Amino acid sequence: MQRSRLVAATTAAASLALLLASTGQSASAVARAPLAVDSTPSAVPGRGAALRVFWSNFTSGTIGRADVDGTNVTQTLVTGASNPAGMAADTSAIYWADNGSHTIGRADHDGQDVDQDFITGASGPRGVAVRKHRVYWTNGGTGTVGRARLDGRDVDQDFITGAASPFGIAAGAAGVYWSNAGTGTIGRADLNGKDVEQAFITGAAGPRGVAVDKHHVYWTNSSTNTIGRADLDGRNVDQNFIVGASGPANVAVDAQHVYWANAVSGTIGRADLDGQDVDQAFITGAAGPRGVAVVPGKGHGRKDPHGR
């Protein structure tokens, strides 16, 4: 009996070690985590994959949320927004550009502690991004990019000037990127607001959302219903990286997928990082969705299978 218990315990320990190695978690983290209903390997996101997907419902003034596999959809996680447009997320909160009230809103991932006036004084804000200790947003009314600390203090509505009807914005280690809908370009600047280049990428068609990862910058072409992509240095531009969208607004990216808001069809689209396995109706039932954001997981994720 003691031998059989010892074998069972050894087997269980080995299985736990294998699970921890595959997920990058510690034993204490696993002990604290709630028991998942579906414990099959397919239900566990890959390293660096998003844990949640959020989107803004422009028409109904709400924020929606779903699990990374598109299940457990709620269209009313947050209510009371005024024409919410672009969205952003970090590991503790979600943010949205409240176009109707000229503010940046904020809430916890579970929809609690809602602050519709987290940052005030914006001018027709359309996009929002988060990078470490800073929040960035586009002011469509004044053609500027605003910036503040992550706690909402030290607001600068003119952090970057000279944009042409800016919509989406993204911030990564390589800099800040935004879409210039008025000129069909993607702009770029360093994280400190210097070295501004309003025509960093040209040839876009009604660009709206912008996203960035470690290797690429992505944007939506609302006039041609496509998603564009280029290298972080602006080379290898592909204006038709993903086709078949329906009024694409904002775009987001994690270590495995690209997501976009189809404003016309009321859906959230998704594709692999190489542009394959496109699903234009990954999440349905949204009301004029504009923004989309993902909460990143830990790790570096898988490599682009095509090496691009």
What does this structure look like?
The longest helix is centred in the first third of the chain and has 22 residues, at 2-23. 9% of the residues lie in helices and 47% in strands. Strands 3-2-1-24 form a 4-stranded antiparallel sheet, with no helix packed on it. A 4-stranded antiparallel sheet has the order 4-5-6-7, with no helix packed on it. With 308 residues, it is mostly beta strands. β12 and β13 (175-180) form a beta hairpin. The chain contains 2 helices and 24 strands. The radius of gyration is 20 Å and the shape is globular. The protein has one domain (52-296): Neuraminidase, CATH 2.120.10. The protein has helices at 2-23, 27-32, and strands at residues 50-57, 62-67, 74-78, 84-89, 93-98, 103-108, 115-119, 125-131, 134-139, 144-149, 156-160, 166-172, 175-180, 185-189, 197-201, 207-212, 216-221, 226-231, 238-243, 248-253, 257-262, 267-272, 279-283, 289-296.
User: What structural class do helix, strand and pairing data support?
Assistant: mainly beta
CATH level 4 superfamily: TolB, C-terminal domain
CATH classification, class level: Mainly Beta
Strand content: over 45%
Please give a quick description of this structure.
This protein is mainly β and about 300 residues long. The chain has helices at about 1-25, 25-30; strands at about 50-55, 60-65, 75-80, 85-90, 95-100, 105-110, 115-120, 125-130, 135-140, 145-150, 155-160, 165-170, 175-180, 185-190, 195-200, 205-210, 215-220, 225-230, 240-245, 250-255, 255-260, 265-270, 280-285, 290-295.
